[in-house]
Amino acid sequence: MANINKAVKLGVFTLAIMNVTAVVSLRGLPAEAVYGLSSAFYYLFAAIVFLIPTSLVAAELAAMFQDKQGGVFRWVGEAYGKKLGFLAIWVQWIESTIWYPTVLTFGAVSIAFIGMDHPEDMLLANNKYYTLAIVLIIYWLATFISLKGLSWVGKVAKVGGMVGTIIPAALLIILGIIYLATGGHSNMDFSGSFFPDFSKFDNLVLAASIFLFYAGMEMGGIHVKDVDNPSKNYPKAVFIGALITVIIFVLGTFALGIIIPEKDINLTQSLLVGFDNYFKYIHASWLSPVIAIALAFGVLAGVLTWVAGPSKGIFAVGKAGYLPPFFQKTNKLGVQKNILYIQGAAVTLLSLLFVVMPSVQSFYQILSQLTVILYLIMYMLMFSGAIALRYKMKKLNRPFRIGKGGNGLMWIVGGLGFCGSLLAFILSFIPPSQISTGNNTVWFAVLFIGVIVVVAAPFIIYAVKKPTWVDPNSQFEPFHWEENNTQNTQSTQSAPKA
């Protein structure tokens, strides 16, 4: 038995690479390339105040509640009660729903560049109606496949992660090095300042989206028990994974900035254009369609996996009585069909914003900002909740603990994560100066109305929920404070009267 347990333990480097694969995505590199050398500052800053705190805090929370359902609903609910716990998992689900059109926009652009006619490819990639059609076709195809409950989807996603992210990232960096080593002209000014101009707030907005690049590291917390000596080796894996992630992002961004002038950088097209320019330089233009197919496959494989993923969390919570029976309906295979249909309807409505926004990249940017804002609400609840639980559940066993004794290090790590998230949250509302987002009224209206509607919805649902919503087959465990109240009530009832 000991040998079996030992066999399934993850090595430090293995876990680090798993975290890198889960987090790294190349589609956001153009957004940071416009900052030139100072982009490295943003990557490092976000890693210190967000990526590393997220990994460590999530690891402690995941280890604390490893035997109980709910994920972030459990973590926040234990600290602040059911309403805020429901808000946390609600925004986590909704932000992933809003994320689909942005990632599929990148997929549509990749597909456009599969052709060999570069000017025609760029024209097609910037066509709103083409992009809208591709986004909806691929999303609904992924939804219908998810409803079939196919087990091979996970395998496709693993291959897609390697073929569509890791290999292209390494190739982009190598091409940049070859280009500079052979005397290629750099469009990036490496003599510029490492530190950005903090006097211009609108210059910081695109940088706020960098937090979304690092989002998702909380998922790695579920593996904290799969590592030998987690209190020592899990932080090692976190720091190694963070370092590799930052190196990929920094060098990948530099590689794009070197080959594309800052004024020509486009949020949705520049990654493909960058590859195309490098391939022309080494006289291998035939590779452009190959890399476009690889990137498109990576995007589509990821979406195929995630379409059903986040909805499972809200589904489990819904069955515990937080959503009407309509949302709890499943098909014959046990897949949450109605939630997937509602999710699909939301993606379709959001995709129709193409018609309102002045360009594909402005649509891409505003949805990316809305995704960041919603996700950061969940993170602020998670960071502050972890600190609160040090006092509310001080006696609970913590297989992985930030700091050996006392709560000082948790205050530093959790406080850093909360303050970093709050800063990015505020900055995300400001329209960026680097891209045309059309009328500022539309920008603010979409963001403010979007946030108000999404945040208000779970409180309204909670206020009208009924006892009949609870699925009798749900095995959702009570919160610790519910168990304590029950025990106190029973002890009071059984105590002899004076």
TrEMBL record:
<keyword id="KW-1003">Cell membrane</keyword>
<keyword id="KW-0472">Membrane</keyword>
<dbReference type="InterPro" id="IPR022520">
    <property type="entry name" value="Glu/GABA_antiporter_put"/>
</dbReference>
<feature type="transmembrane region" description="Helical">
    <location>
        <begin position="281"/>
        <end position="309"/>
    </location>
</feature>
<dbReference type="GO" id="GO:0005886">
    <property type="term" value="C:plasma membrane"/>
</dbReference>
<feature type="transmembrane region" description="Helical">
    <location>
        <begin position="201"/>
        <end position="217"/>
    </location>
</feature>
<dbReference type="InterPro" id="IPR050367">
    <property type="entry name" value="APC_superfamily"/>
</dbReference>
<feature type="transmembrane region" description="Helical">
    <location>
        <begin position="238"/>
        <end position="261"/>
    </location>
</feature>
<feature type="transmembrane region" description="Helical">
    <location>
        <begin position="366"/>
        <end position="389"/>
    </location>
</feature>
<keyword id="KW-0812">Transmembrane</keyword>
<keyword id="KW-0813">Transport</keyword>
<feature type="transmembrane region" description="Helical">
    <location>
        <begin position="84"/>
        <end position="109"/>
    </location>
</feature>
<feature type="transmembrane region" description="Helical">
    <location>
        <begin position="339"/>
        <end position="360"/>
    </location>
</feature>
<feature type="transmembrane region" description="Helical">
    <location>
        <begin position="442"/>
        <end position="464"/>
    </location>
</feature>
<dbReference type="InterPro" id="IPR002293">
    <property type="entry name" value="AA/rel_permease1"/>
</dbReference>
<feature type="transmembrane region" description="Helical">
    <location>
        <begin position="159"/>
        <end position="181"/>
    </location>
</feature>
<keyword id="KW-1133">Transmembrane helix</keyword>
<dbReference type="GO" id="GO:0022857">
    <property type="term" value="F:transmembrane transporter activity"/>
</dbReference>
<feature type="transmembrane region" description="Helical">
    <location>
        <begin position="41"/>
        <end position="63"/>
    </location>
</feature>
<feature type="transmembrane region" description="Helical">
    <location>
        <begin position="129"/>
        <end position="147"/>
    </location>
</feature>
<feature type="transmembrane region" description="Helical">
    <location>
        <begin position="7"/>
        <end position="29"/>
    </location>
</feature>
<dbReference type="Pfam" id="PF13520">
    <property type="entry name" value="AA_permease_2"/>
</dbReference>
<feature type="transmembrane region" description="Helical">
    <location>
        <begin position="409"/>
        <end position="430"/>
    </location>
</feature>
<protein>
    <submittedName>
        <fullName>Amino acid/polyamine/organocation transporter, APC superfamily</fullName>
    </submittedName>
</protein>
